[in-house]
Each structure stands twice: as structure tokens, then as C-alpha cells.
Design brief:
globular, Alpha-Beta Plaits, 8 helices, YebC/PmpR family DNA-binding transcriptional regulator, DNA-binding
């Protein structure tokens, strides 16, 4: 499945130290998804997925409720969904997903982040063909065999099921995100260690020393941009 989903602890640590930024991004995403459909997760599958992801990040109920209320109201605030593709040092590839109410501002900030950190923007499709969209679900209280049996009995397809560190990780098609969680919940699972819709690189690369530090700086700058929701890449950053 490309890069092993082996940075669970690192990702959680990163989330924890940037909670206000993470909450703001989720608030924006919840508002946009609720505004595009119904502000009810039972009738809006995309909203249900976002809210499930928000649980993993411990997004406060007040922030979720505020975003839903905003979507139910008469707010005329609109956001565009944008995807940028680019290259970092030594053949590294980066995908940046954004939600913005000012396309020119976002484009300028993303371009600046790349050019100031040994990277450059590419055209649409220049990077994404080397990535696969995937749902990634993690559980800590089941074995690989138990998870496989649960999903088979529920007639839910998974691309792969592997033990990674302290979790069993299920890789599935994006449209199977809710089905995987529903099957596991029906089997008694109450918590998930990972619940993500992501882009997985088909092949990872490693960077050495100063080059890796430079690449990590690029990713940090991109993730800190207000309009950026997600950043995906093909670099194995290790433990």
C-alpha cells in the first residue's frame, strides 16, 4: 500500500501541538460539506465522514455545532476546493488540498512556500498520478484475522489489512470508509486509532540529512497555511 502508515504517534503528536489550527480547519471543512448537502450526517454521507474524522482529532462539540449552525443559517460565505501539485527536493512529490475564499491569496502563499523551500509547483496531474486515494482505518483491540473475518461477514471490501505498531490498519477505497467503520462498530469496536481519507504514494523515497530537514520545513510551512486542509507526500520520514 505504498508508505506504511507507521507515523501514528508522530501524527498524533503533531495534531496535539497544533490543536487550534486543526480545529479551525475542521470547522471550515464541516461548514463547507454541510453547506454543499444537508447539515445532517444521516442524510449527508460526506458530512458523516468528516465528523468521524473529527472524533479522532478530539474536535470539541462546540466547534462542530458552530459550523453546522453556520451551514443551517443564511451565511453566504463560500469556499473553493483547490488542489495543488508540486515537487520538493530530490524527486519528492507533494499534493496540497485547500479550501479558500480567496483563490489568489492561496495560490500565492502555496507558491511561495514551495519556492522558498527548494520546491516548485507543477501543473494539474503532474504528481497525483503517483498517488492513490484511500480510506485508512485503525483499531487497537482486534487482530488482523479478526478484522478480516468481520469485514468478510459484513461484505465490506478492503485493499489490505496489516499490523502496524500497536494498531491493525485497514486500507480501503474511499467510498468504503463508513462501511468499514460500521462493520467494526457492529462487532464491538468503540474507538479508532486512525480514521482518514488520504492520498497514499505508490512508491516512497527517503531523503538524507539536510535534504530531509529542508523537505520537512516545506511540509511544515504548507500545513501552517490557513487555507490548506491536507498535505500529502511521497517521503518516508521514518519513526
Amino acid at each position: 500500500m505504498g508508505r506504511k502508515w507507521n507515523n501514528i504517534k508522530e501524527k498524533k503528536a503533531s495534531k496535539d501541538k497544533n490543536t487550534s489550527r486543526v480545529y479551525a480547519k475542521f470547522g471550515r471543512e464541516i461548514y463547507v460539506v454541510a453547506k454543499q448537502g444537508e447539515p445532517d450526517p444521516e442524510s449527508n454521507r460526506a458530512l458523516k465522514v468528516v465528523l468521524e474524522r473529527a472524533k479522532i482529532y478530539n474536535v470539541p462539540k462546540a466547534i462542530i455545532d458552530r459550523a453546522l449552525e453556520k451551514a443551517r443559517g443564511n451565511s453566504d460565505e463560500t469556499y473553493e476546493e483547490l488542489r495543488y501539485e508540486g515537487f520538493g527536493p530530490n524527486g519528492s512529490m507533494v499534493i496540497v488540498d485547500a479550501l479558500t475564499n480567496n483563490v489568489n491569496r492561496t495560490a500565492a502563499e502555496v507558491r511561495s512556500a514551495f519556492t522558498k523551500n527548494a520546491g516548485n509547483l507543477g501543473v494539474s496531474g503532474s504528481v497525483s498520478y503517483m498517488f492513490d486515494a484511500a480510506a485508512v482505518i485503525g483499531v487497537a483491540d482486534k487482530t488482523e484475522e479478526e478484522v478480516l473475518e468481520i469485514l468478510m461477514e459484513a461484505d465490506v471490501d478492503a485493499r489490505d489489512i496489516v499490523q502496524e505498531e500497536e494498531s491493525v490498519i485497514i486500507y480501503a477505497a474511499p467510498d468504503q470508509f463508513s462501511a468499514v467503520q460500521d462493520a467494526l462498530r457492529a462487532a464491538g469496536v468503540t474507538e479508532f486509532t486512525v480514521a482518514e481519507l488520504t492520498m497514499l504514494a505508490q512508491n516512497d523515497i527517503t531523503l538524507d540529512g539536510d535534504v530531509q530537514a529542508q523537505f520537512e520545513k516545506l511540509i511544515d510551512v504548507l500545513e501552517d497555511l490557513e487555507d490548506v486542509q491536507q498535505v500529502y507526500h511521497n517521503v518516508d520520514l521514518g519513526e
